[in-house]
Amino acid sequence: MRMEVAFEQMAGSGTVGPRKGSRSARRALLPAALAWLGAWGSVALAGEPTASALALGAAAAVAVFLTARREPAPAAESNGGANRALLDLVGQVLPLWSRHIESSRSQTESAVADLTHTFAGLSNRLDAAVRESQRTAGSLADANRVGGVAAALAQSESELTPVIEGLHQTVASKAALLSSLDEFARVADDLKRMSEDVKDLARQTGLLALNAAIEAAHAGHAGRGFAVVADEVRRLSSASGSAGQRIGERVERVLAGFASLRQAAQSNSQQDLQEIAAAEERIRRVIERFAETVGEMRTSAQTLSTASDEARRQIDQLLVGLQFQDRMSQILSHVREDITRMADAIAAAPLGAAVPNGAHWLERMERTYATTEQRENHRASTGRPSRNAESNGITFF
Amino acid sequence: MSKTIMVVDDSSSLRQVVNIALTGAGYRVVEASDGQDACVKLDGRKLNLIICDVNMPNMDGISFLRHVKSHVAYRFTPVIMLTTENQEAKKQEGKAAGAKAWMVKPFQPSQLLDAVSKLILP
């Protein structure tokens, strides 16, 4: 049975006539509706089994309903009664299908929004972990970046170097002191020799005074005055010798003190050099260990960063993938709206309303499509080429 | 101070995706669920850019775009249409209404950020 006749019989009175020139379009309406109902299922892929089953069920039921109208009726009266019953059934079922589709659509949207939120949270936490790791390990690109272990290492090295230099300067100062002590020791040696000279002069003067006294004794009474002078010279010579002796002793003590001081200073200087060398070695080892740790942390941060980049790329791909829900939602909304329009048309048919024109219906459907999938399905069902050019990506005006 | 972008889309999951991409790049985001909701949320607030879907209930994207361009405060605010619509005729309709760019879903977040950085007002 042809669709326009079916519509007449659905109306029951035959007052609703078919529109001329729309037979082919009405023939196309059935497969278009079926393809259209299943369109979002192909977009959703394995996304939502409940919605998919619902759409396929809807398509199958519409097919059964419309196929029933193509079969020859045994009698016009019973056929009209059956059609009225079917009309009543479809009028009750279509709003329910529409409600189920909307329910599935909104549930999917809510679930995908939750999924998106969860993945965004994962992505943000991953970013935070990588940022913290890189901040701690120091920037891989810039070792002088403020903060981080690399910067701390560089700062430690720059602060420890002056400490070592300071120790070396202290040792150098001690060497200068030792040099001064050596100069003092040389002066003291000179003083010692001078004291020996004084003692030698006193001894010679004493001998001269003794000879003078002997000569005075030979002179007798006339030499008595000279003897007194010689005696005084001998006494002064003896006093000079004693003074020279005391100077020599003092200088000896000073020299001994210098020698002791020099030995102690030399000993300290050697010890200082050894301690400085040991400190340098310790600092070098600590910095080396520190640098090794930083290197490991950098490697770890680099690994984490690479893994994070990959995870971010995958999450970005996932966020692109999750956008299928938007397309599915638009297709489902379109299906729901058309089911509602169909239900309204069926409800209005028994009241004498004009039967919708198939060509107009299809044109309106095509005009309101929002996705390529809908248009492709429409083309596949109607066999008509697209009237409009399409292009994806971004266009700047 | 970070720049503010209004995202108008009836799909909450799509708004989430756009929001994540934009906030991750340091932008502030104001969301609206359709053109009508967006008109209410404009409320004289300073916007540096608007990203808008086309097919939405209550008020569609092209009608909202015309409303925005008729508003003296938003006459120069750049608008990117983000939609599943990929027909040239629709794009020309968007261009005539004052859109600066037309991006077809699904989109790569990086692609959207590139477009935003090119068009956003200082």
Concise account of the structure shown:
Chain A is mainly α. Helices cover 83% and strands 1% of the residues of chain A. Chain A has helices at 3-11, 23-44, 49-68, 76-137, 149-219, 224-321, 324-348, 358-368, 372-382; one strand at residues 394-396.
Low-pLDDT runs of chain A: 1-53, 63-73
Query: Alpha-carbon distance between the termini of chain A?
Result: 52 Å
User: What percentage of amino acids of chain B are in beta strands?
Assistant: 15-25%
Q: What radius of gyration of chain B results from the CA coordinates?
A: 13 Å
| Separation of the first and last Cα atoms of chain B | 11 Å
Notes on the protein architecture:
The complex is a heterodimer of chains A (397) and B (122). Chain A is built from 9 helices and 1 strand; from the N terminus they run αααααααααβ. By secondary structure, chain A is mainly α. Helix content of chain B is 43%, strand content 19%. Chain B has 5 helices and 5 strands; from the N terminus they run E-H-E-H-E-H-E-H-E-H. Chain B has helices spanning 12-24, 35-42, 61-70, 88-97, 109-119; strands at residues 4-8, 28-32, 49-52, 79-83, 101-104. In chain B, helix 1 links the parallel strand 1 and strand 2 (28-32). In chain B, helix 1 crosses helix 5 (109-119). Chain A binds chain B through residues 109-110, 112-113, 115-117, 120, 123-124, 127, 316, 319-327, 329-330, 370-372, 388-397, and chain B through 9, 11-14, 16-17, 20-21, 24, 54-55, 83-89, 91, 94-95, 99-111, 115, 118. Strand 1 (394-396) of chain A pairs antiparallel with strand 5 (101-104) of chain B.
List the helices and strands and how they pair.
The complex is a heterodimer of chains A (397) and B (122).
Chain A: H1 3-11, H2 23-44, H3 49-68, H4 76-137, H5 149-219, H6 224-321, H7 324-348, H8 358-368, H9 372-382, E1 394-396
Helix pairs in contact in A: 1-4, 2-3, 2-7, 2-8, 2-9, 3-4, 4-6, 4-7, 5-6
Chain B: E1 4-8, H1 12-24, E2 28-32, H2 35-42, E3 49-52, H3 61-70, E4 79-83, H4 88-97, E5 101-104, H5 109-119
Parallel strand pairs in B: 1-2, 1-3, 3-4, 4-5
